[in-house]
Task: structure prediction
Amino acid sequence: DAGVIQSPRHEVTEMGQEVTLRCKPISGHDYLFWYRQTMMRGLELLIYFNNNVPIDDSGMPEDRFSAKMPNASFSTLKIQPSEPRDSAVYFCASSSIATALHFGNGTRLTVT
Amino acid sequence: GENVEQHPSTLSVQEGDSAVIKCTYSDSASNYFPWYKQELGKRPQLIIDIRSNVGEKKDQRIAVTLNKTAKHFSLHITETQPEDSAVYFCAASDSGGGADGLTFGKGTHLIIQP
Result:
């Protein structure tokens, strides 16, 4: 298995632009998570899906952030408009019930 | 919601010595406690986990202990080696596994001095 696949690995954009991060979970995993990692706040859970349905989005910082999972093998996290404080590493992770969480390699986002 | 506290934030030990990282959690319903290792610029990777029906678990040089009464769990690394240098995260969940997400501690930067 290729593991959780994220793209792009790096994204540099200007303030105000739209950013879309992509994730392909491990086949057979029915839970998908988006985490954000910063030095100040550590690993924060933004949102998670079960069977493509958003279950808990209480970690999404504000309306500028949105996430979708149109099918079992694809999810997106969108930031519109982006701001410099959104700069972070965004991890996608997947799991199934009673199994460990597996992380993707992350997307390093820099907003200038 | 769950709150996980992790100490210390930085730990420096001599190669060959032992390292201990401690975490406390707040939600008594939590029943799954994994530990992740993150090397610089890489993703967090699971190194060991423990469930609430077990008090201790070992895997070669790594062990985890759990005290449910006190709501704390610890990671023990013996005979430390340079490749153990990384950031270690503890986490807790009440789903028995990765479902419903994990609440992570802030991490411990472990430095192995040669």
